[in-house]
Amino acid sequence: MKKLALFAIIVLIFGTVSPSLVNHAYGQNDPSILLRIAVQADKQIINQFNKIYENEIPNNINILYDKGHRAVKSLDQSLSNNDIEKAKQDFLLAMNSFMQISRIISQSSEKSVEVNVSVKSNQTLESKIDRLEKFVQTLESISTKHKIDQNKDKFTKAYSLIKEIRNQINSNQNPSENTNELNNLINSIKKEIRNSIAEKQSNAIKNFFEKFLVQIDQKLMEAKDLGRDQIKIDKSNELILEIRELLSKNQINDAKKVYSELQVVLKDIGISVKIT
Amino acid sequence: MISLIEPIQLQDSLGDDGILFVRNNSIFDTMVKIPLLVASMIIVAALLPIQSSFSSPRDLDLIIYPDGSTHVSTKIDVDPFLTNYELNLFGSSIDNLVVVGNDEFLLESDIVENTIIIQTFGSSMINIDYDIHDLVSKQGRFWTFSLDSPSDFTLLLPKNSAIIGMTNLPINMEIVNDQNQLTFSSGQTEIDYFFSTNTISNPIPDTENKIDYFLFAIISGIVVITAISIGIIIHKKQKNVKTVEPIQIIQKNQVANIETIFKLKPDLREDDKELVKFIFNNNGEALESELRKKFLQPRTTMWRAVKRLEREGIITIEKKDLQNLVKLRKNMEENE
Fold this sequence. Notes:
The structure holds two protein chains of two kinds. Chain A folds into three domains: 18-109; 117-197; 199-269. Chain A is 84% helix and 0% strand. Chain A has helices spanning 2-28, 30-52, 59-80, 84-109, 117-145, 152-170, 176-225, 230-248, 252-269. The longest helix of chain A is centred in the C-terminal third of the chain and has 50 residues, at 176-225. Chain A is extended, with a radius of gyration of 32 Å. Residues 20-28 of chain A have low confidence and may be disordered. Chain B has two domains: 58-209, Immunoglobulin-like (Sandwich); 252-336, Winged helix-like DNA-binding domain superfamily/Winged helix DNA-binding domain (Arc Repressor Mutant, subunit A, Orthogonal Bundle). Chain B is elongated and about 90 Å long. In chain B, a hairpin with a 2-residue loop joins strand 8 (136-139) and strand 9 (142-149). Chain B is 39% helix and 31% strand. In chain B, helix 7 crosses helix 8 (299-311). The interface between A and B is large, with 85 and 74 residues.
């Protein structure tokens, strides 16, 4: 047993020390990432120069690029020297210079850039479908958790519609009809989830109120002993009774409203609604 | 918990006239079984690095779509004793909002300008998902993402996007489905990017793979060590149990009669008698949590009651699935 206890203590020490090892390793990962991002940005800026200016790069942009490019080289050097603080400064200097260049370019070329309306609207539609798909996935996760079988077919239909809409976007067809159908389907799924979990949710809220009201009862008694405003204390007790009655009748929303009133009165008395 | 410790600490001052009969020098053996201690230490050791590496009080993940809209997903710890939780959103143009509490309950919420008021009602953790159109602006062909984040966050950039400017130092970068995912610390962050057909790919740095393996090796090592240790403990226990087993079988169905218990313990409190009756009617055993639910008692009150009955020699307390299993003693009369 002694050996086992000793072994356990070694594991305990190892377990305590290992997080710092992990964090240390994670921190060391930063520098190479900085260089990668900076080098990529540098190359992209050059690509932009080639497209926009050919060989006639404006002087102010050229100065900024030189500054940024030198910072990238310095970043590489700082990393080789293991000078992390200098590397961070170099990274920020390089990225800041490239950012300024991109903003100057965007301002000067704004008028000359031709915006392809079809591409732009497709991009917006695709993003909208991406967002709706993410929303459907979130609802599906909730629905699965609560075992709401009624929604299963609706989710299948929703994913099928998403696929169809994407095909329509790619073939430049109008997907508005399917998009409307998808929106209606999502609303129906949401409604089904709310209805299905309403009872469980009500019980959870009832339990919460029950615990909460017991605490408020006690605090009101303390307030009474301290000689606080009796009329407001009586009013609070009335509201508590009303909440309990509404909860017993399963009128959760009404109970919530009365609770809001109670909160105001409790605040007037000087009672914190947070249980300690 | 304090009430448990106090009498033991006071034991010296009570001397021979003290109420308690527990000796300091035997308290360790009496209250804590060594294998249990060893197992606990191993579990704590195993959990420490895992908790430290992965747990986070607040998660914030953002996904930028090609049209500049952004999906925000955040996980927040909230006070379970509050009815409402108020949170500042990153803008006012919100779509597809879902707020989920404990047990995946949909929570009701109201948005007033940039603020959301969520009716949490007992939830200790909430997940908020929404789409927002205020975080990314566009000038010419360049897009700018701007956020003043209250916590560390991850940002997934759109496919084919190339970063050309940044005001904050990234903590980490990964490639997720051919998209750059960056992790930033809290504070103001601005990123300029544009869409390019010639996007230069950013393979995950080799060092990161090594670190993942290292982390994996640490966790695996701890799991293996824990498994071996538990195996040793179980093996040792089995050796001891073999001789005890026949006695346990004989003692089954020998739960003391309830009337006998009350006869032997005439001074039992009424509420304790109710507890004993409930345990007796529940085949002689019940979880402490069941007792709390049945008698609507706070944890500490029920714990004291159970300990009282244990001191009276009426029940025994065993551990079952990390819970206290309260059993009526089978040989109470013999003890008496």
